[in-house]
């Protein structure tokens, strides 16, 4: 672990950064996290390869690991897979952020009658980032039960990390078409497309070029694990550079099947980028978005 800590810290320190900001990390109630890990443990037959959890440890050890890596801010992305779950997750995440000052205050939602109420409460309580998981939640982001939610989130300009791409396995409502429809109705939404929209990279880059609020996170993209299944198209590499102020580093910690340093290396070693792009993606873009002191 000491070697990995040194490797991670050397990447950001060599760029003159004060650390990293990771917009895509998961902290959840223990019983929920255990079920998530069980899900990944069973994913081998679904994706055609095993998915070991590299950082399977208790909560305090996971927090210590991120801090040792030099992660200045991170998220506790929670998400429901059924009704009557989101409000409880929000209460847990609010308390977690209260006790963990370096964690962005996180919340979520689900298409249900009470969604508008608990999302309003979350915004009033200072939520800094929402998570919407279209694949796991198995819902259309344009469900009428979410109309009020999207309007409130848009007006409050709270970023939403949205897993809407069809990787690692497609869902009934994944893909760019429904997100494009959502943005046509709510063009000021600040959406952070998880996993670069994998595998529909090109289509989600299109949306980032069309809508000023759309960003993408690098979670699992560019790594050998993902490239073997859903490679990023070489023809779009120039667009990565051009959108360098709209791309944010994300890791999926602790649920990644490789080391944290590997995720960083495969991001900073992309062809055609420069140190300004690297600094923006690893830290400065998120610092601007979330109001974190840059130095």
From TrEMBL:
Q: Amidohydrolase-related domain location, by residue?
A: 21-291
| Name of protein | Amidohydrolase family protein
- Keyword vocabulary terms for this entry: Lyase
Q: Does the UniProt entry include the keyword Transmembrane? A: no
The answer on whether this UniProt entry bears the keyword Lyase reads: yes
Q: Name one GO cellular component term.
A: cytoplasm
One Pfam family linked to the record: Amidohydro_2
């Amino acid at each position: 672990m000491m070697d990995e800590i040194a490797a991670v810290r050397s990447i950001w320190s060599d760029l003159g950064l004060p650390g990293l900001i990771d917009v895509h990390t998961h902290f959840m109630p223990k019983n929920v996290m255990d079920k998530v890990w069980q899900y990944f443990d069973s994913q081998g037959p679904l994706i055609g390869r095993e998915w070991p959890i590299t950082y399977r440890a208790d909560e305090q050890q996971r927090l210590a690991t991120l801090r040792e890596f030099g992660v200045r801010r991170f998220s506790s992305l929670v998400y429901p897979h059924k009704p009557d779950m989101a409000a409880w997750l929000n209460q847990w995440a609010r308390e977690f952020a209260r006790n963990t000052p370096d964690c962005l205050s996180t919340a979520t939602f689900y298409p249900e009658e009470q969604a508008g109420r608990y999302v309003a409460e979350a915004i009033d309580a200072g939520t800094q980032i929402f998570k919407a998981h279209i694949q796991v939640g198995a819902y259309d982001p344009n469900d009428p039960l979410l109309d009020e939610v999207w309007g409130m989130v848009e007006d409050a300009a709270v970023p939403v990390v949205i897993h809407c791409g069809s990787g690692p396995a497609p869902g009934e409502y994944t893909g760019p078409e429904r997100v494009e429809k959502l943005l046509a109705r709510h063009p000021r939404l600040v959406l952070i497309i998880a996993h670069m929209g994998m595998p529909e990279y090109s289509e989600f880059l299109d949306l980032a070029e069309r809508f000023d609020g759309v960003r993408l996170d690098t979670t699992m993209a560019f790594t050998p694990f993902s490239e073997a299944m859903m490679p990023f198209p070489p023809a779009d590499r120039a667009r990565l550079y051009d959108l360098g102020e709209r791309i944010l580093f994300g890791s999926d910690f602790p649920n990644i099947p490789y080391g944290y340093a590997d995720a960083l290396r495969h991001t900073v070693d992309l062809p055609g980028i420069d140190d300004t792009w690297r600094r923006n993606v690893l830290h400065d873009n998120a610092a601007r978005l979330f109001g974190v002191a840059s130095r």
